Amino acid sequence: MRMSIDEFRKKYPNLAREILDNEGLSLTIKFENKEYVLDDPWRGYIPKVDDYIRRCKTVDEAVEVIDYLEKNGEITSDEARSYREILREKGLEYFGPRKTDDYYYKKAYEYWRKRALKQDLSRDIEN
């Protein structure tokens, strides 16, 4: 999908401002011990339908997400129908607890923390 910058600014004004005008939040991570290498635990991760549904606050919102995924060919009509049926019968809770806005940041932090602990332990064993 191609889009001109002007069209992008019209469709997504806030995102355009953050990306194109550097108005977004910045994050600086400073390491005192430079031996730690933090790779991206989400690199290559492609969210599944369940991941999108778990971010929804209401069943109507989840149905809207399913409609979008179906319309864009990311899921088949049969899959969409099945997800809608599950939502009607069992609700959002069936898919697991709701993923908060900072869910992926928290999971990445846990991953990095565990990895740093392993590096510390292996260094202690070597010494």
Summarize the model shown.
56% of the residues lie in helices and 0% in strands.
Spell out the blueprint of helices and strands.
Layout: H1 5-11, H2 13-20, H3 49-53, H4 59-71, H5 77-90, H6 103-126
Helix pairs in contact: 1-2, 4-5
Give me some keywords for this one:
flat, single chain, 2 domains, mainly alpha
What does it look like?
With 127 residues, the protein is mainly alpha-helical. The chain contains 6 helices and no strands. It has helices at residues 5-11, 13-20, 49-53, 59-71, 77-90, 103-126. The mean pLDDT is 83. InterPro entries: DUF2095. It holds the Pfam family DUF2095.
What is the C-alpha radius of gyration, as a whole number of Å?
20 Å
As for the number of domains, it is 2
The separation of the N and C termini measures 54 Å
- Give the integer mean of the pLDDT values: 83
Count of β-strands? 0
Low-confidence stretches: none
Into which percentage range does the β-strand content fall? under 5%
Major sheet description: none
**What is the number of helices?**
6
Q: What characteristic shape results from the CA principal axes?
A: flat
The helix/strand order is HHHHHH
Provide the helix percentage.
55-70%
- Kindly name the structural category: mainly alpha
Organism: Staphylothermus marinus
Protein name: DUF2095 domain-containing protein
